[in-house]
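Please, is this right?
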Amino acid sequence: MIFQQPEETNDNILSLHFDQELTGGDTESKRRLELEKLLYNEVTTLPSLPVMFEAIQKILNKQSQMGFLYINIVQYSMLEQIYGWRKFDFFMRELASTLVDIRNRLMREHDSICEVMLKGSTFMMLLSPSRTKRLIVREDLARLCERIGSEFNEALRDRITNEVFEKLGCYFGYAILEDDTTQRLERLVYNAIEEAHQASINHQQRDVKRRSDALRSIVRHKKIRTVYQPILDFEEKRVLGYEALNRGPAGEFENPDFLFRVAYESNAVWALDRLCRQQAFKGIRKMQNGHRIFINVEPHTFEDPQFFTKDTLEIMSAAGVKPEQVVLELTERRAIEDFDSFKKILQAFKNSGFKVAIDDLGAGYSGLQMLSELLPDYIDYIKIDMSLIRNISNHELKQKIISFILKLTSDIPTSMIVEGIENRDELTTIRRLGVRFAQGFLFAQPGSVFPQVDPEFFDHN
């Protein structure tokens, strides 16, 4: 049963509760609106599967079979936790719009799209009958599924940020629905959906294995390179240090977020993080004395017995880098579950001279908790994500947030670093607010050789 029958009424299965004071046309209008909310997703405007049953039955009556594609969006619910419901709704609208555009561009006019469950993560493309009335060939459906899946991922990547796209997994399956007058239509449909869902899971598993094998090859052959971006100190008019940014081979693995997403899937985070540190330290031999080196670190890798191996320490020593010059940037890719144990580990590193920073505050779901748990004793720097800086010159709330964090850190031994400065308006605004440390493309693009900074930036007001 799709809708639950209200106990106090004898109306049919689509009956709904309404305000008893509403009468006549108001009641009927209200009923239609409430019914639409149950049958159509108000965010994507797509119908739910029950709306399509009549159309499905007509196709089966005419041709005795039909094909459909099944789209499974995995990890989508995490987006709402990270970005909030407004941006999440935007992502879902873009996703649905991408499907509709592909239908209009690549498929037949009467092919239709629906959601398996409203506000869910699964969609269906129902294929209209063939004009030739020939039977559906499974191999043809498989090729269509692969083509639509490829087109969908490429089109969606152009609609949303790479940061969001890399957090999603979009997997396609397909099935052929055969008419069987001995079974209810609903049962036939849901059995076919289960078959298509399993096909999408198989697609996902193949994709995970392909990525896992590729990542292990990258780690084994040390195909990680490091580029460096300067961090400016406006008060002392010098470069405070450089952030080491790791890149994989050209293609999807070049993006570090994608690299570590696959590493988590493949249980290879420690190995990848260890290699990234080693490659970063190998490249800092040309760094001037007194500069700090900021190294991104996954919080979970602090539990790695080989977190700072003898080999890594020897590389640091050969480069002339002391622990006091190293800042460990804690990423937000995964939440910290046991802060008490984590604090003990951090303290041991701080006792050895290492500095600690919270990276990308404002971008992930765990930053504020990390801030409240670790300030002021364990954190030397707070790095503000570029999302809070973009267009800050015209955004009063963002300016207030930066001012608040500056005030928060003014009485404790923790400094704020602003990331992602791309234009002079942003630079002017953060300097007016009193920001001392910043980095971004405006000052220098990341490079394999430590980039030089134009001295005029230090005098910018």
In short: The first strand starts at residue 65 and ends at 74. The longest helix spans residues 185-220.
